[in-house]
Amino acid sequence: MSDLRYPLGPMPTPQSLTPVERMEALGQLFALPADLFEVVQGLREDQLATPYREGGWTVRQVVHHVAESHLNAFTRLKLALTEENPTVRPYEEDRWATLPDHDLVPEVSLNLLDALHSRLGMLFASLNAERGDWARPWTHPAQGRTYTVDTLLAMYAWHGRHHVAHIQGLRDRQGW
Ligand code: NI
After folding, report:
1. pLDDT at 167 (0 to 100)
2. Which of 18, 31, 67, 160 has the fewest CB atoms in 10 Å of its CB?
3. 9 found inside a domain
4. Is 144 exposed, middle or buried (0-12, 13-18, 19+ CB in 10 A)?
């Protein structure tokens, strides 16, 4: 039986990407707001309040989580581009998901993601390989590992698709 938590497998953490892989990941990042919009289209209130798996977040929480996770991605990218190997700030994502703003309608975070991904995508697209932008390091203290800007792109391109797959999987299983 497949793991409902990881429909696309574990998060990739490559230290570097080829130019073709970067283009593919960037395309996925640009497509995410529309993909997420589409996968929640037509869901009723009670469906939005349904956990995507037993014990998991509701559809609504998943959408709000993607927005706040990608706000962190934006901050991490800006830090990596402007400081020398910055240590990024982890956060308690499960606790964030219990705060009252997760009761808002999904449209609020879909609009946020639309604007955010315009900036995130533009910034990634502007990076210069000869200047070494993609290799700029940053450190995640919880994992005790140093990654690169390439890793960041791969992680968050995957992350958006990972959560879209959660919601699509629920819809498929429920026949919604
Ligand atoms: Ni996530």
Report:
1. 98
2. 18
3. no
4. exposed
User: Would 125 be classed as within a structural domain?
Assistant: yes
Tally of structural domains, the chain: 1
What is each CA distance from 53 to 33, 43, 111, in whole angstroms? 22, 16, 25
Torsion, Cα 96 99 100 102, to 10 degrees, reads: 30
Ligand 1 center to 23 CA (angstroms): 22
Ligand 1 centre and the CA of 175: distance in Å?
24
Domain region containing 154 = 19-174
In a domain, 1, yes or no: no
CATH number for the domain including 111? 1.20.120.450
- Number of other CB atoms surrounding residue 164 within 10 Å: 24
Whether residue 1 is predicted with pLDDT greater than 70 in this model: the reply is no
Locus of tokens 């240590």: 87
**Model confidence band, residue 30 (pLDDT cutoffs 50, 70, 90):** very high
Q: Classify burial at 174, counting beta carbons within 10 Å of its beta carbon; exposed 0-12, middle 13-18, buried 19 or more.
A: exposed
Is 50 domain-assigned? Answer: yes
Q: What percentage of the chain carries pLDDT values higher than 90? A: 97
- Residue 156 alpha carbon to ligand 1 centre in Å: 9
Q: What is the mean pLDDT of residues 26-55?
A: 97
Q: Residue 89 and residue 85: Cα distance in Å, rounded?
A: 13
CB 37 within 8 A of CB 110: yes
